[in-house]
Amino acid sequence: MGRIGEKMRRLTQELGDNYESRRRITGMSVAGFSITSQLTPERQVDWRELGEALLALLDEHGTGLLITVDEIHAADRAELAQLAASVQHFIQDRLPIALIFAGLPAAVSDLLNEGVATFLRRADKIDLHAAAVSDVEKSYTDTFAGAGISIAPGLIREAAAATGGYPFLIQLIGYFLWREAEKNNGQLPPKAVNRAIAAGIRRNERVVIEAALAAASAKDREFLHAMSIDDGPSVTADIIHRTGSRPTLVAKYRNRLLDAGLIESTGHGKVDYAIPGLREYLRKNPDS
After folding, report:
1. pTM: predicted TM-score of the whole model, two decimal places
2. Contact in structure between 212 and 106 (CB atoms under 8 Å)
3. 101-159 pLDDT, tens per residue?
4. How far are the Cα atoms of 113, 148, 156, 199, 206 from residue 141, in angstroms, in the given order?
5. Of the candidates 204, 206, 193, 201, which has an alpha carbon nearest to the alpha carbon of residue 140?
6. 3-state secondary structure of 253
């Protein structure tokens, strides 16, 4: 809140003097929003007054303010509550404000379920679904060719397949491939590609899978482990048999895991993991 408030103050000063010669669209981004101290009631009032002044100025010129907050799974809930309450106040006053949160699906679901701000439940929830592996392969091919990096088509296909089309893994494996190319004078032989894929998978396990499982209950994890026996989609009836739970309880945890983005429906009575690598991780870590 303090960082956003300071940015708003600077924007108000910048735009207030000679607005027409300046920018027409204004936005601010806060990544890793993890401030832990709350604003005092007096400063909250100042923050809102500052926001109102900036938004009124922008409104006069037919534009508005967009605030984006990344990695909300690492954010302090009290800070998010303050921000959401202030934005709701601006919306009620019909001021031109927009708010975008981004984070792991489980964190987004928790935020909405905790009731940090009632109006957030009415927000558009956008799920970044997996990309087609063929699109990932083309993207890697074009990117490396444009940079003069030499890699065999079969190895690009292998790296693309390892991402499962998952956005974060596309970024991770691409990053580690690039690092390997820098170490090998622009060459990506099989061993370098294997190292990059392994490094990307390890980072995904630490940052995504372990974070998602940390928010899962013991029953949630029991459901997930029961699925890991299968090499593909799991049948709900099999999960009921493996866990020894009542069908109503299994249905409850199925819905929780769907909402958290850990699993997805693949047909009537079938579910599969929504996060690439989760099956392999659970098999390697039966006590997780």
Report:
1. 0.66
2. yes
3. 888 766 677 777 666 566 777 788 887 778 999 999 999 999 999 999 999 999 999 99
4. 41, 11, 7, 20, 27
5. 193
6. helix
